[in-house]
Amino acid sequence: TLPVIALVGRPNVGKSTLFNYLTRTRDALVADYPGLTRDRKYGRVKRGETPYLLVDTGGITDDVDGIDSVARRQVQLALEEADVVLFLVDAREGMNSADEAISTMLRKLDKPVILVTNKIDGINAEIATADFHRLAMGNPVAIAAANGRGVNELLQRVSAEL
Ligand code: GDP
Ligand code: MG
């Protein structure tokens, strides 16, 4: 079976944009994967040496009431099946409390996590990314999922974990 890479992060950071960028090939979408649901979308990624399955999830919010519990369960399932986690944050908006809550959760998971600062197009990537070192999730990879900048470096970081 293919290694599984899960995309997590709060809503609107660009998870689905990155998912679409990496799975843009014909037949990439996996329609018959066991456990497939509306909130977990699977695609095959064939770039780089090792093919893998990429899982897009709904966003993680830090509100604790029941409304998001279904989405949260989907994220949990994605994290359980993941070999590597891509933790996306929004370089334009900067760090917020949801990012910190997610990083706390991911640390407990004890799986390889790659911090990805997205939306660096048209801004100073170094300055925008520096703040996120405070999350202590390692060296962030700066990308723009909208145009593919930085994605090759990201793919190399993923391959190194597989
Ligand atoms: P998700 O909720 O994490 O899946 O986020 P989406 O992929 O739906 O993206 C949320 C918004 O951010 C959309 O309006 C995207 O067009 C925008 N977006 C995503 N990636 C980028 C990027 O690299 N640069 C910019 N400027 N906008 C982006
Ligand atoms: Mg999405």
UniProtKB/TrEMBL annotation:
<feature type="binding site">
    <location>
        <begin position="118"/>
        <end position="121"/>
    </location>
    <ligand>
        <name>GTP 1</name>
    </ligand>
</feature>
<comment type="function">
    <text>GTPase that plays an essential role in the late steps of ribosome biogenesis.</text>
</comment>
<protein>
    <recommendedName>
        <fullName>GTPase Der</fullName>
    </recommendedName>
</protein>
<comment type="similarity">
    <text>Belongs to the TRAFAC class TrmE-Era-EngA-EngB-Septin-like GTPase superfamily. EngA (Der) GTPase family.</text>
</comment>
<comment type="subunit">
    <text>Associates with the 50S ribosomal subunit.</text>
</comment>
<feature type="binding site">
    <location>
        <begin position="56"/>
        <end position="60"/>
    </location>
    <ligand>
        <name>GTP 1</name>
    </ligand>
</feature>
<feature type="binding site">
    <location>
        <begin position="9"/>
        <end position="16"/>
    </location>
    <ligand>
        <name>GTP 1</name>
    </ligand>
</feature>
<feature type="domain" description="EngA-type G">
    <location>
        <begin position="3"/>
        <end position="162"/>
    </location>
</feature>
